[in-house]
Structures
1.
Amino acid sequence: MKATDLLMREHKYIIRALNVIQQMASNVEHGKALDDRDVEDIIRFLRLFADEHHQGKEEAVLFPAMLKASDPGHLATLRWMTFEHDQERSLVEGLEDALRTKKGKDFVYFAERLNHILRTHIHKEDHILSSSWPAHVCRPVRMSASRASWRTSIATSTKKS
Ligand SMILES: [Fe+2]
Ligand SMILES: [Fe+2]
């Protein structure tokens, strides 16, 4: 299996979690109580799988490889994708706060924003990943780089441009 196929498969797992959160928000809107442990589980999944594992690989390996394989004009797109990762992380924090403070309206707000932003983000990434890339972008690789080095490199290139 190509590395890019693996990332697209992981998107499907993340979409399933979004379906669960969407249903939770709908339940809150209809006056049903949430099971705190279910919400904690889904937040843990978003933090550990969707962010640390999945988006961590994108930033440490995929985005740098894509930038290397394409023209520098793609930097703006990849920078935007990284910005969306930050937005998603903030929205997950919002969900966590809403759970802690028992504010149902906030939970619905953050759940809806996260659903919209993350589904759109995944749709864009699937489109990018399914287009043809040189073999070295698609090949499974060991993670040798780090997410921090990608973030440093785009911050540095921002200053230069
Ligand atoms: Fe992403
Ligand atoms: Fe992704």
2.
Amino acid sequence: MGDKIKYCGNCKQFVTATTGIRWGIFILLLLIFAPAALIYLIVKAGTGGRCPICNSKNWSVPEK
Ligand SMILES: [Zn+2]
């Protein structure tokens, strides 16, 4: 569901890109405990769209 499959140039394989902030979770936290929602935002900011293995954004295309 909403997974972004990309090819990592470092790991030479297809991986599921990290999603970073999940707004559904953020809103849920906001309703339950607002400070936790803010911490979640700070922790997750800038972590989206990366390779889960090497944590890079070296997206490439598979070599033949
Ligand atoms: Zn990688």
